[in-house]
């Protein structure tokens, strides 16, 4: 292990939230989802532009997560490196990222086939189907910015850099990986998509832990979301 890797590893082991702080952060994450969801549902009854409200909800969610990260950074006097923002050679590990991406999609496709064979399909009311499907070129750009850029950066910092890093200090690496992946998947509030997102969460933790950097996880998360967004888009010809 070289000096840079030793420094990164020491950061990863020293930095974590106390039990009280971690509970408050998790409560804050849940609170953000609940408040924004309830607010969106109330506004839908008064304003018929459902798709616009869903975009507002999605962007406000990422903004709220970013503010939560900023609050943690200020209160705990952390630097960005304490949250996993260490430089790493993406060119060197790109084949690894692409291989893990192919693995997650293979599992996703197999899971989808299994559900379809048992008569289970996503409901028409699913928020992700509404947001990502039947897009125009303008909404496709919005979806790519939101899902392919903002969400990977913010969510990896929060769920891998803060939540996993803190859980690891109390439970060890593997238990923390499972718990953080379960939290990451459950908060998407999509029952039939829980397992694929759980697998993705575990893979993202693996990349973060192996390279002691958020960059590989952000690249995989962004790639996964961009491809999913393009597949879901039903652009008018």
Structure, briefly:
This protein has 237 residues and is mainly alpha-helical. The chain has nine helices and no strands.
The general outline is globular
Query: What percentage of residues falls in helices of 4 or more residues?
Result: over 70%
Order of helices and strands: HHHHHHHHH
- What's the count of strands? 0
Radius of gyration: 18 Å
How many discrete domains? Answer: 1
Low-confidence stretches: 5-13
The biggest sheet amounts to: none
Structural class: mainly alpha
Binned strand content: under 5%
Helical stretch tally:
9
Mean pLDDT, all residues: 86
Distance N terminus to C terminus? 54 Å
Description:
This protein is mostly helical and 237 residues long. It has one domain. Helices cover 78% and strands 0% of the residues. It is built from nine helices and no strands. α2 packs antiparallel against α3, α4 packs antiparallel against α8 and α4 packs across α9. The longest helix has 35 residues. About 4% of the residues have low confidence.
Output the keywords.
single chain; about 240 residues; mainly alpha; 9 helices; about 0% strand; globular
């Amino acid at each position: 292990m070289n000096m840079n890797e030793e420094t990164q590893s020491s950061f990863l082991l020293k930095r974590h939230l106390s039990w009280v702080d971690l509970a408050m952060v998790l409560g804050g994450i849940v609170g953000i989802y609940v408040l924004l969801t309830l607010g969106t549902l109330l506004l839908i009854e008064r304003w018929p532009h459902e798709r616009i409200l869903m975009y507002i909800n999605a962007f406000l969610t990422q903004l709220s997560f970013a503010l939560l990260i900023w609050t943690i950074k200020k209160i705990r006097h952390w630097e960005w490196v304490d949250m996993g923002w260490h430089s790493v050679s993406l060119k060197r590990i790109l084949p690894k990222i692409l291989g893990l991406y192919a693995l997650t999609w293979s599992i996703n496709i197999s899971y989808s086939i299994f559900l379809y064979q048992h008569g289970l399909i996503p409901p028409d009311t699913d928020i992700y189907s509404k947001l990502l499907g039947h897009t125009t070129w303008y909404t496709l750009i919005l979806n790519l910015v939101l899902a392919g850029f903002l969400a990977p950066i913010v969510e990896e910092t929060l769920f891998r850099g803060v939540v996993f890093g803190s859980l690891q200090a109390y439970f060890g690496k593997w238990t923390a990986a499972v718990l953080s992946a379960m939290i990451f998947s459950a908060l998407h509030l999509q029952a039939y998509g829980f397992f694929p997102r759980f697998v993705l969460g575990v893979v993202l933790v693996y990349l973060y832990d192996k390279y002691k950097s958020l960059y590989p996880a952000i690249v995989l998360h962004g790639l996964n979301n961009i491809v999913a967004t393009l597949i879901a888009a039903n652009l008018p010809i």
